[in-house]
């Protein structure tokens, strides 16, 4: 539990919040880190179909409500939020999630790879939708190494937020589609970013990440992404949390077009 306490403090510290203030005013409520642990457990249960979709929905909305409350409870943070909100309107809020790449690497010609119809986060059996953008690298021999640079490609956080879940143990042969994935909750947007198919994950649940910070290295993990017919790519999804606490996919294409690039 000592570790959990430290992680919680680190998360709060990343927001420049006086940690003593948070601890005193909300000592009976779960920490941000506790919500991250709940999210990690829930998403794993959904994937393994160990929880009925209706129960998963209830738990998800309760976790999202809890996270929202934890991040809302500080005035200095709200001022920060207003500043970043104006940044977002100018299109500079987002960082392009591949280092060294631009919007021309997004699949399709106008981001039409996005198909949200039929998406259900809580029922792993539902297939056919693709509420995401795939962003490709040059990797003809499919070894996860960028043919242009001779090195791996860094996956960067599109916005600042707290890592709420990761998978690091995907193995070839596994039917799980996301491979080694990362979920990041952005309290400013009150939404979740999902970065899938990574070869290596460099963050842990409870960790605060800044926009542009390295999260992972691109890979080919995941049931379909591992197959030879699939070019090496990042699968990027954003879920807006609605007032009822449930997720709604939003197309990130416009954000990607105006995102800041990292060399
Ligand atoms: Zn995809």
Write the layout of secondary structure elements.
Blueprint: H1 2-14, H2 19-25, H3 32-47, H4 53-72, H5 75-89, E1 133-136, E2 154-156, E3 161-166, E4 180-186, E5 191-201, E6 208-209, E7 214-218, E8 233-241, E9 247-250, H6 253-258
Helix pairs in contact: 3-4
Structure description:
Its EC number is 3.4.24.-. Strands 1, 2, 3, 4, 5, 6, 7, 8 and 9 form a 9-stranded antiparallel β-sheet that branches. The longest helix has 20 residues, at 53-72. The chain has one domain: Glucose Permease (Domain IIA), CATH 2.70.70.10. It has helices at 2-14, 19-25, 32-47, 53-72, 75-89, 253-258; strands at residues 133-136, 154-156, 161-166, 180-186, 191-201, 208-209, 214-218, 233-241, 247-250. Helix 3 packs antiparallel against helix 4. With 263 residues, it is an alpha+beta fold. Bound molecules: zinc ion (ZN). Residues 130, 132, 134, 235 line the site of zinc ion.
Can you tell me the CATH topology?
Glucose Permease (Domain IIA)
Strand residues, percent: 15-25%
Radius of gyration: 18 Å
State the distance separating the first and last CA atoms: 39 Å
CATH architecture: Distorted Sandwich
Instruction: Let me know the average pLDDT.
Output: 87
How many domain units? 1
Low-confidence stretches: 1-25
What bound compounds does this protein have?
zinc ion
Structural class: alpha+beta
Number of helices: 6
The main sheet comes to: 9 strands, antiparallel
* Order of H and E elements: HHHHHEEEEEEEEEH
In a few lines, what is going on in this structure?
With 263 residues, the protein is an alpha+beta fold. It has a single domain (1-263), classed as Glucose Permease (Domain IIA).
């Amino acid at each position: 539990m000592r570790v959990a306490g430290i992680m919680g403090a680190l998360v709060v510290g990343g927001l420049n919040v006086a940690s003593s203030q948070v601890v005193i005013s909300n000592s009976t409520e779960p920490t941000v880190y506790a919500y991250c642990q709940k999210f990690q457990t829930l998403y794993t249960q959904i994937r393994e179909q160990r929880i009925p979709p209706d129960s998963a929905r209830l738990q998800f909305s309760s976790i999202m409500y809890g996270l929202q409350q934890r991040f809302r409870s500080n005035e200095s943070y709200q001022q920060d939020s207003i500043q970043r909100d104006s940044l977002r309107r100018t299109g500079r809020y987002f960082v392009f999630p591949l280092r060294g790449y631009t919007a021309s690497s997004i699949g399709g010609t106008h981001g039409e790879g996005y198909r949200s119809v039929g998406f259900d986060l809580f029922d792993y059996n539902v297939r056919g939708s693709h509420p995401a953008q795939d962003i490709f690298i040059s990797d003809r021999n499919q070894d996860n190494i960028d043919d242009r640079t001779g090195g791996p490609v860094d996956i960067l956080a599109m916005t600042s937020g707290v890592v709420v879940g990761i998978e690091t143990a995907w193995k070839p042969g596994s039917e799980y589609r996301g491979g080694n994935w990362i979920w990041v909750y952005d309290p400013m947007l009150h939404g979740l970013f999902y970065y899938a198919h990574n070869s290596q994950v460099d963050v842990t649940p409870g960790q605060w990440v800044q926009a542009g910070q390295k999260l992972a290295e691109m890979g080919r993990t995941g049931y379909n992404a591992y197959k030879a017919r699939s070019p090496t790519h990042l699968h990027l999804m954003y879920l807006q949390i609605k007032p009822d606490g449930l997720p709604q996919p939003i197309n990130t294409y416009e954000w990607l077009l105006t995102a800041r690039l990292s060399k």
